[in-house]
Amino acid sequence: MAIVHPQKWRVLSRLLVYLRQNKLRLVLGFISIVLTNAFLVASPWVIKYAVDELSVAVTRERLAYYAGLLVGITFLEGCFRFAMRWLLIGVSRTIEYDLRNDLFRHMATLPLSFYQKNKTGDLMSRATNDLGNVRMLLGPGIMYTANTALTAVFAIALMLWIDWRLTLIASIPLPLVSYSVRHFGKKIHDLTEESQAKLADLSARVQESMAGIRVVKAFVQEDHEIDEFRRSNLSLVDKNRQLIRVTSIFYPTMQFMIGLAVVIVLWLGGRRVVEGAITIGDFVAFTVYLGLLTWPMIALGWVVNLLERGRASMERLNYIFDSAPEICDSAGVIRDFSIRGAIEFRNLSFSYNGHATLRNISLSIPHGKTVAIVGATGSGKSTLVQLIPRLYNPPPDSLFVDGVPIEKIPLETLRASIGYIPQDTFLFGETIRENIAFGVDAASDEEIRRAARISNIEADIEEFQQGFDTMVGERGITLSGGQKQRTAISRAVVRNPKILILDDALSSVDTYTEERILHELKEVMRDRTSILISHRVSTVREADEIVVLDRGEIVERGTHAELLALDGYYAGLHRRQLLEEELAVSE
Question: Domains in the chain, ordered, with CATH?
Fold first, then answer.
């Protein structure tokens, strides 16, 4: 049958390690299944003797004896059935917990390129809905597969013992069962896979709409988003209806085959009793055993659905697990390395997605110095600084920290020594205090306040009703753009990093606030290596060196005065901004 084909189930091999970790509970669970079914099939056998004996003579003692025996057997069956479910369903929950932790841990190691290629909603769907389907496969899927298989084996064995001829005749529908499972199982798997993909698309649509709700409202696109959601939702419903249609045919097909077998037994079994080939007790027991096969036949369709859903979902989870972390520690890292902060780029060239982003960058930044980088949009400024914390991997022996190739410095040591404020400010939906202290194990209240003071946001925070304990909402939605940037600066400062990188981190604040922040940052930047990226000359003019990038290459470098004298890109930028300031004042 299709459900036991070994090749197609190889996608589940990753789960074996989790099953081995719970092998004792699994073994006890399977023992409980065996005992549950042993007592289950014992009841009809007791009924067989009771009918034969009581059909001759009925006494109160014999009635009490057989009644007590049946009650005792049923009680023991119930106890072991409880143990079976408690052990096996419990194991599936434990594995779900471990698998979810391992999945999130692995996702945290994946590079930025992975998240640029995959939608957040799709990844969320895999980590929740698909993982739940895998749990159902490991819990009810395994339990009911083993349980129904044993019930069928025990029942058919005893039916053969009673009358092998009648059993063979009653088994005539079995080839049709095999064909149905093979035929419908493939359809269920394919439709399940398509349904999961549709659900992932719907999740991605909701996530994007909610994350961009400000843009949606600003452009009056609520109706458009509602229509798009309706279309995605309808597509998911249509696919699920196709799945329901298939399963709706599958279950009645199983029941029809059961009914056919019952009709055959009643007709031929009655004749065998009349002929004296079997007793009335044999016939009653045989009929009860045939009834016990009803649930396995019906459950077969449900179990196939569970297994196929679980297999399709595990294929989707394997896509994440099989995505290898591109950025990790190599075998030759220096474990006890201590960073001071000197940075050097040596003839660095870097390509992203086949596009040359940086070309022949040679730049030395001594410890404690401040270097500013300016350039047009798309010139490679952000890419250059993202190589320092290894958000992308630079070519070997092209980027050095304190004279050591960056790939030989432990990743955790490197990133713990860097305070990086990206241009796309992200805040977590927690309190301002927790956002500032993010990444610091035990930041004191004074350290948090000092960091807020340096970024010139302390006064804003004090005006909030709950102060530093104010919830900022998802992605910091309750704060203005400038407040979010200043909170992000505080988060970097409180780490007391050896290397401080501000990637256009003052673009959302006014020039007055910018001057105050830069004034406070002077003290912070005095003993650490600092890199400033900005479009404003006012932000970078006091840097020890200013580097101008154009199309991934360094085209100008020097101090503010030297670059003005050069009368190139930087001088032109300076003149334009002076003119803009004069026009703003005149207005």
Answer: 15-321 (1.20.1560.10), 337-417+500-587 (3.40.50.300), 423-496 (3.40.50.300)
